[in-house]
Design goal:
The chain has helices at about 1-10, 140-150, 200-230, 240-250, 260-275, 290-295, 310-315, 320-340, 340-345, 365-375, 380-385, 385-395, and strands at about 40-45, 55-60, 65-70, 80-85, 90, 95-100, 150-155, 165-170, 180-190, 255, 280-285, 300-305, 350-355, 410-415, 425-430, 430-435, 460-465, 470-480, 485-490, 500-510, 510-520, 525-535, 540-545, 550-560. It has about 575 residues and is α+β, with helices and mostly antiparallel strands. It is globular.
């Protein structure tokens, strides 16, 4: 049914906008082949590592490896020259924990003698022998979305239950290459229980993790005794024990997905109990455990997103009671504190990287800029994208900075990367060049970008790109007081023509419009996110469908100004 939904008009082949500039037209925008193995980007502003100032230099790379960098570099005759005079180059971003490109494995069938209080490990979501490489697809739409956001390397986690399997470090490059950098780099774990069976609760997950860890330790001790002593009964190593051995023996860490303060405390408590290496991933509420994280030496991957401000925007200033005003103040205080959490990690001296788990590619730079506005320094922000995750993943010798001998992974932008007007124009991964569309900014008479709110109310006709061609419908947005409401028509996934759904969470910030709507398909409910940049009566944007990625969308405002 998911595939039918995608073919019905909500997913399309994500085609990046490719530039026609002569200097870049020699590269292959799809990353499927190289015209030449040797490139030189000349006279660009290069930020080789966090904290270093940008310097004008030429960057030379061949077959995915940096050959040299400097202002007076001697270039081989076979090098394809690319003018970089107006470009800014940064090390390729590294994602410490990701689900990009990961597909869901098939659920195993329950045995006839199934007992919910003591299910087999695989059915209970305990599959440490699984590898993320078996679930990863480089051609997935999410891979291109995150690459477009500047990410060149991702440690991907397998999908599954409380112990879904082993993570792998992948390079997000050419679809025809072997993209595995390293397999079995960590054991993925989380506090999600199994439905309708043990362990169903967080407490059950903790108890089961203890059981699996302790039994693995006993099985390894038994195996060592059997190998060295005559007369000992042969040990029986289950697939779970064999796969968990690398954790018990300290060879790889456990990446615990711990979003809340309580989950972080639980994961650190387990680490202290057993002594395994620990990485906390997906943190978005950690202010009160920073001291604990620091004292335990736990590696940290915080979520690359910030809380939305809808609750703040929806606060009404007229005719509210004193109690309501006090509640508003508490909500605003909690929101402001959440935005400052990353800066508190920096002040505490806790190095951290980013995880894209549950985050949206299109919001990545906006989230970073928000963190910077709330106290995070640009140096630490860049380190969290590059050198810190490289250290956490153990790939600092080959990635994280722009140096001779390291992988040719770069983010190339139109301005300093953390400026509001900066756009990512090219991403180089493993020496392959991917070109992305740069949107033109509307300007006033002084040549500055206009920041006034866009006119969004009225009747729109929209079109999205699908594998079968173009499809679309009607979008109606009306203003009711200070809030926006409306409807959208779309192609019914079941093939029954057009259907209409209400839109929700409508927001306009400057020229950017965002909203959501829900789609039902075969008993499954999916939320579709729309983001668009408005210029006059036209909108150019994307349609994002959960794990399936983002797809091009355009719209035209035909009948403006609807109000209720």
């Amino acid at each position: 049914m998911k595939r039918q939904f995608l073919k019905a008009g909500f997913a399309g082949l994500l085609i990046s906008g490719f530039l026609s500039h002569a200097a870049w037209s020699q590269s292959d925008p799809t990353g499927k082949r190289r015209i030449t193995d040797t490139y030189a980007i000349t006279n660009a502003t290069i930020f080789a590592s966090p904290g270093q100032p940008g310097t004008k230099a030429t960057l030379l790379f061949r077959e995915g490896v940096i050959i040299g960098m400097g202002p007076n570099l001697s270039l081989p005759k076979e090098a394809q020259l690319i003018a970089g005079d107006s470009l800014f180059i940064y090390p390729g971003f590294i994602d410490g924990a990701s689900s990009a490109g990961i597909t869901k494995p098939k659920d195993p069938e329950r045995p006839k003698d199934f007992v919910s209080s003591n299910p087999p490990d695989e059915i209970a979501g305990i599959t440490p022998w699984r590898s993320a490489t078996d679930q990863f697809s480089i051609t997935g739409n999410q891979v291109d979305d995150w690459r477009k956001a500047g990410f060149t390397i991702s440690q991907v986690l397998p999908d599954g239950g409380m112990i879904p399997g082993k993570a792998a470090i992948m390079i997000l490059g050419n679809s025809g290459s072997v993209n595995v950098i390293q397999e079995n780099t960590a054991l993925a774990a989380n506090f999600s229980g199994a439905r309708g069976m043990y362990p169903a609760t967080a407490a059950g997950v903790i108890a089961k993790f203890r059981d699996v860890y302790q039994n693995t330790t006993l099985a390894l001790d038994h195996s060592r005794l059997f190998a060295s002593t005559a007369g000992v009964k042969r040990p029986e190593m289950t697939p779970t024990h064999t796969a968990m051995a690398a954790v018990v023996q300290g060879q790889i860490p456990v990446i615990f997905k711990a979003e809340t303060e309580l989950e972080a405390r639980r994961a650190i408590a387990l680490q202290k109990e057993f002594g395994f290496k620990l990485v906390l991933a997906g943190l978005d509420n950690y202010e009160n455990v920073i001291d604990l994280i620091k004292s335990s030496g736990t590696a940290v991957l915080i979520k690359l997103q910030v809380p939305d401000d809808k609750a703040i925007k929806n606060q009404k200033s007229d005719s509210v009671t004193t109690a309501t005003k006090a509640q508003y103040a508490r909500v605003k205080e909690a929101y402001d504190k959440a935005l400052k959490q990353a800066s508190l990690l920096e002040k505490a001296g806790v190095p951290f990287g980013f995880s894209t788990l549950d985050a949206k590619p299109g919001d990545a730079m906006k989230a970073l800029r928000t963190m910077i506005k709330n106290g995070l320094t640009e140096k630490t922000a860049l380190a969290a994208l590059t050198t810190n995750p490289a250290t956490i993943l153990g790939i600092g010798k080959t990635a994280g900075t722009i140096e001779k001998g390291k992988m040719a992974n770069f983010v190339i932008s139109t301005d300093s990367i953390f400026k509001e007007e900066a756009q990512i124009k090219h991403v180089v991964v493993d020496g392959y060049i991917f070109d992305y569309e740069v949107k033109k900014k509307s300007a006033n008479g002084n040549g500055k970008t206009e920041n006034g709110p866009a006119a969004i109310t009225g009747q729109w006709d929209y079109t999205s790109q699908t594998p079968a061609g173009s499809s679309g419908g009607e979008l109606i947005i009306a203003k009711n007081g200070v809030e926006y409401t409306g409807t959208i028509t779309y192609t019914d996934p079941s093939g029954n023509g057009k259907v209409t759904a209400p839109i929700k969470n409508v927001s306009v910030s400057g020229k950017t419009l965002t909203f959501q709507f829900d789609v039902s398909a075969g008993g499954m409910s999916l939320t579709v996110d729309i983001t668009g940049e408005i210029t006059g009566n036209a909108m150019d944007g994307t349609m994002s469908v959960g794990q399936f990625g983002s797809f091009p969308l355009t719209a035209k405002l035909n009948s403006p100004s609807l109000s209720l």
